[in-house]
Design a protein that fits this description.
Pfam families: PX. The chain is an alpha+beta fold and 156 residues long. The chain has seven helices and three strands. The longest helix has 19 residues.
């Protein structure tokens, strides 16, 4: 079984405002039975990765969860080097996570990687309070072609 996960295409959102942030495209391609959709593409920001790591840690018991790249206490303009280092760190984090069988069993991870649901929507879905099951949410996103549209847009 092979799973390729790439963190790419960092984009600064709300540039120049006090609430600017960077989000990253996460492209996943796999033939693993663990995943509902074999290909997906979503955009996530750093604080969503922080949430994911915290959830994985809560549910993984004694299994160590990989570290995230450090949080910068002050974000100076467009530090391309900082953004690139963080992108690499996020990619290494996800590569390690998808190789771990225990972490792979967490449905929050699957919704994080294979749907564009917000964090509160992921929580509701996992707790059975959403309008869809985890599988339905992932399939709905996959069928909507949202992931492919994002993938196509970024091709030169």
């Amino acid at each position: 079984e092979l799973t390729t996960v790439r963190v790419q295409d960092p984009r600064v959102q709300n540039e120049g405002s006090w609430n600017s942030y960077v989000d990253y495209k996460i492209f996943l391609h796999t033939n693993s039975k663990a995943f509902t959709a074999k290909t997906s593409c979503v955009r996530r920001r750093y604080r969503e990765f922080v949430w994911l790591r915290r959830q994985l840690q809560k549910n993984a018991g004694l299994v160590p969860v990989p570290e995230l790249p450090g949080k910068s206490t002050f974000f100076v303009g467009s530090t391309d080097e900082f953004i690139e280092k963080r992108r690499q760190g996020l990619q290494q984090f996800l590569e390690k996570v998808v190789q771990n069988v225990v972490l792979l069993s967490d449905s929050r991870l699957h919704l994080f990687l294979q749907s564009q649901l917000s964090i509160p929507e992921i929580e509701a879905c996992v707790q059975g309070q959403g309008s869809q099951t985890v599988t339905e949410a992932i399939l709905h996103y996959a069928m909507s072609n949202c992931g492919w549209v994002q993938e196509e847009e970024s091709r030169p």
